[in-house]
Design a protein that fits this description.
The protein has 418 residues and is of the alpha/beta class. The protein contains 10 helices and 16 strands. The chain has a 7-stranded mixed β-sheet, sandwiched between helices. A 5-stranded antiparallel β-sheet has the order 2-3-1-4-5. It has a 4-stranded antiparallel β-sheet with strand order 7-8-6-9, covered by helices on one side. The protein is elongated.
Length: 418
């Protein structure tokens, strides 16, 4: 796929060579094409948005391969029936699967009259099809289906003086997704409508529903390190990864025993943190997490914490073979989240060990060498945290809380807070 400069907010769309989208039938054309499945498009780099695969399955469009683009050699020579739609297929990063047929969006210089726009388009071999009352310098123009839309746009810009031009990319519409969990409407941090007493500020949230248009966490793994967890909780159990576990002390030895459940009375904190990360959605139970389709790797301290234990936990989250030789190194976490106060780092040697563990996970070994994203919660007490060895580490993103009206809570502050 050729490179092209992006004119929008994301990467420039790139053609899937030889792939066409058809809707309807192509009578009387002896073309040799092969059906292409949606799964094959994903193997070629398409990352579908939540719900997009099913939307394409029911859209009436089918995808075919025509190696060498033999379709392009026929499309200008045949009068296509109204029942048939044909389009090229494009990818653009995390954008939806895009189709472009025989129409481009063109922007002319403001000084050009409508007649001059039409004349220039005709000189370029295009016809003016539609105008826009809200943008007099913009028009939709038609070209031959056999022409590459990106090449048409380049020609309009480079040779005919138009300000900009791009294919009229189209995709399947997707409804906004909102969980059906009964307590979701109270989760103002995901979607703040001003609910609650006292009332919050609408929009003072993390824009969860916008993020869910791109992903709900499918394929990602979030490690949560905390005191303990209720790992059979009805909103967590389905997402708990088999490598979850806890550290216990027997006769002075600390072991990792392979279950994240904790008998500690403080496991409510870890359960809450895990829930905010990845509580399941659409099960009509309570609320949901920010990434309700992500795997949860739960690592419990079970009342014990030290620099050595935390370093081991972080190394394990990055690469589980550090605690189990039978584990798969690819089962490490994409994100590590910890909300424990780092006051357990009480010596310079402990601080040095933690720096190395954070570098190991966040830079050299996490995500198979790409680095794991590490987020640590700031304390819920006022004061600067800039001198803390964990909070000031460049591999750690430190987060603090705000209220439903977007005011800062009474928690720690400093340059380290993101």
């Amino acid at each position: 796929m050729g490179e092209r400069e992006s004119t929008g907010a994301g990467p420039a769309p790139e053609r899937l060579p030889g792939i066409w989208a058809l809707r309807g039938t192509l009578p009387g054309m002896p073309l040799r094409v092969a059906e292409v499945t949606l799964e094959e498009l994903q193997r070629q780099g398409w990352s579908p948005r939540p719900g997009e695969v099913e939307a394409w399955r029911t859209s009436g469009w089918r995808f075919v391969r025509a190696d060498g683009d033999p379709l392009a050699g026929h499309l200008d020579d045949v009068a296509l029936p109204p029942s048939l739609a044909v389009a090229r297929v494009y990818l653009a990063g995390h954008a939806p699967l895009l189709l472009a047929a025989d129409e481009v969006l063109v922007r002319a210089p403001e000084a050009w009259s409508r007649a001059r726009i039409a004349e220039r388009l005709a000189n370029a071999g295009l016809e003016l099809r539609r105008t826009f009352a809200s943008a007099p310098s913009a028009v939709s123009a038609g070209h031959g289906l056999g022409e590459d839309p990106l090449a048409v746009c380049d020609r309009l810009r480079d040779e005919f003086g138009f300000e900009d031009a791009e294919p009229d990319f189209r995709t399947v519409p997707l409804p906004s997704w909102r969980p059906n969990d009964p307590e979701y409407e109270t989760q103002w941090s995901w979607r703040n409508t001003g609910q609650g007493v006292p009332a919050g500020t609408p929009g003072a949230d993390v824009s969860a529903e916008r993020a869910w248009r791109i992903t709900r966490g499918t394929g990602a793994r979030i490690a949560v390190i905390d005191n303990g967890f209720d790992d059979v909780h009805e909103d967590l159990a389905a997402g708990v990864h088999a490598n979850s576990g806890r550290y216990l002390s027997f006769g002075g030895a600390v072991i990792f025993d392979g279950t994240s459940a904790s008998s500690s009375s403080t496991n409510w904190h870890g359960t809450m943190c895990a829930g905010r990360a990845g509580a399941r959605a659409d099960n009509r139970r309570q609320g949901c997490g920010m990434a309700p389709e992500a795997d949860l790797l739960l690592v419990a301290m079970n009342g014990l914490v030290s620099s050595t234990l935390m370093a081991r936990a972080i190394e394990y989250c990055a690469d589980p073979t550090n605690e189990s030789s039978n584990a798969n190194p690819n089962d490490g976490a994409d994100v590590i989240s910890c909300s424990l106060d780092p006051s357990f780092v009480v010596t310079s040697l402990g601080a040095w060990l933690m720096r190395n563990a954070l570098k190991y996970a966040g830079a050299t070994h996490g995500r198979r060498g790409r680095g794991t994203f590490i987020v640590w919660s700031a304390p819920n007490t006022p004061g600067s945290i800039d001198a803390d060895p964990i909070y000031k580490d460049p591999r750690v993103s430190v987060v603090a809380m705000t209220d439903r009206d977007d005011s800062v809570r009474l928690n720690a502050a400093g340059d380290a807070v993101q």
